[in-house]
Amino acid sequence: MNNAEHKGERLSRQRETILxxxxxxxxxxxxxxxxxxxxxxxxxxxxxxxxxxLDFLSGKxxxxxxxxxxxxxxxxxxxxxxPHLRCSVCGRVDDLEHPLDLPDLPLKQSMGYSxxxxxxxxxxxxxxxAGKDS
Amino acid sequence: MNNAEHKGERLSRQRETILxxxxxxxxxxxxxxxxxxxxxxxxxxxxxxxxxxLDFLSGKxxxxxxxxxxxxxxxxxxxxxxPHLRCSVCGRVDDLEHPLDLPDLPLKQSMGYSxxxxxxxxxxxxxxxAGKDS
DNA sequence: CTGCGTGCAAATGGTTTGCATCCAC
DNA sequence: GTGGATGCAAACCATTTGCACGCAG
Lengths: 134, 134
Fold this sequence. Notes:
The structure is a homodimer. Chain A is of the alpha+beta class. Chain A is built from four helices and five strands, in the order αααβββββα.
């Protein structure tokens, strides 16, 4: 797989900007948050476009769409699978600092499944939420 | 934590049946699927009630609400956190057979988070979907 | 009896989509 | 110039919620 241009995808300003903004942050913004971020640069972009591109980019494996426990999906500019920390109170998602490479796919082909990828999510309460009473 | 009756919750036939049905299967049904299952026993139950009870039960820790990659949430009658296998094609979720106890919470308090729980989900293609062409 | 839980249906909210226009190639 | 990408708004769909009634304790 080389970079991208082998089929027919065009690199629109919107797509470019969405990817750039997503890579710029260490947080794992929801589509809405990406929308807000990108809007500062392209005020006329639409939410639909943000969704379409986020979908496109994650389909390409350039970004990660995090399923997770919350209602909204979150997106990660770093496509390599790595463990996340999710706050069960405010919903924010951080990366784990210490890599903790999980026993990487120790059971490939487990139960007949193929092409396994592994998502790990630790769920807890983040310092900020733990601070302000219950 | 004893069983349940310490506050004021009543054990309705609906709640009881939902829990029983959920424990009966090894699959990880969506709310809709639970609705269908329970309807065979209580034909007049409403989807809203299924959602309310699933929510109640997961809040109590009696069942597990799986966030996961799909659109709909899935529920697991086994409340102990254990790794899952999700098919990226059909969306079905299986339990991993070999326990593979993950490096259990090796980083408790990581980054200031407290009360960590760990969700692990392997994403791949299940045998059935791998079989039938693309 | 009492009030928690239910059935029903309307409301919500995130995400997707149809369509005419726009612009990257 | 041409078809993929966009903006807008309506459509979707899973989930939630308000309300009056029903039933478990």
